[in-house]
Amino acid sequence: MPAVTADTLSLPRLTEAGPADSERTVVSVTSGPRSYEGEGFPVVRAFAGVSAAALDPFIHMDQMGEVEYEPGEPKGTSWHPHRGFETVTYMIDGLFQHQDSAGGGGLITDGATQWMTAGSGILHIETPPAELVESGGTFHGIQLWVNLPAKDKFLTPQYQNLEGGQSALVSSSDGGALLRVIAGDIDGHAGPGSTHTPIAFAHATIAPGAQLSVPWREDFNGLVYVLSGNGTVGAEQRPITGGQLAVLGKGDRITVAADAHGQDSHRPAMEVLLLGGQPIREPVAAYGPFVMNTREQLVQAIEDYQAGRLGVIPDDALMPHVMR
């Protein structure tokens, strides 16, 4: 179950749709392939097969897990560089540790989010803490890459630790869905994340048979990703299930409904992410951990990394824990 829950009857409600509102229709629904990241933890490549123009300002997203690890099985990443964008790690269940060369770091758990602005360049690591490696347990989260416009590509690296309890909690108009706003402003409810690129990022739990209708900025793109469960999305009620991403067209509301029956056996409700942002509409040159505007900038990023100009691994560096 998601760590952050609440009684929806006691929460503020989203504004109901009015006669002048325009509900977004579905442009495409794609299924993310399964793969492995870092030292071998399972992921779903949520954005695979979707055009960069439809995703803008987002670059990449992995659903990490959901997996139930045995003792000794949890895995993460080793130290690696980034430049030119922001990495967002949202832990739904389980534990992850972060450390970077700019002094940021901490334990990500219980619905918390670490928001790292790589900017001009940074080194970091994300790995399960020793206690999770030793005991095993649930691991389920999201890593999202948010692009930076050219004017912000070389910002000084920054780190934000957003605890789960800081998220703005909102209910659907009928109380059947809980919305956790992590970043951006949705219907006047602002999440704690401070973003350079205007975006909205939220996690919703929708009870079986319930519907979530969310006011959405018309100048933002609209994406719905299903973490688990079954339901429909958009004005035409297009079927959608776990591991699928819906790209939506123009309009000022996003609607997702959960099927009355047939949700995942281990989760009583449908779990979805809502994402959108103001498209940057600039050239994108991406290679591995670098997201720039030109090939020349990519070459420079690689050279800077090799020369040690993107940061230095600290003396007290966090390293992946290995059971003895």
From TrEMBL:
Residue ranges of every copy of the Pirin N-terminal domain listed in the record: 45-146
A Pfam family assignment: Pirin_C
Gene3D superfamilies for the chain: Jelly Rolls
Domain Pirin C-terminal, residue spans: 202-310
Origin: domain of life: Bacteria
InterPro entries (alphabetical): Pirin, Pirin_C_dom, Pirin_N_dom, RmlC-like_jellyroll, RmlC_Cupin_sf
Family (UniProt): Belongs to the pirin family.
Listed name of the protein: Pirin family protein
Taxonomic source organism: Gordonia alkaliphila
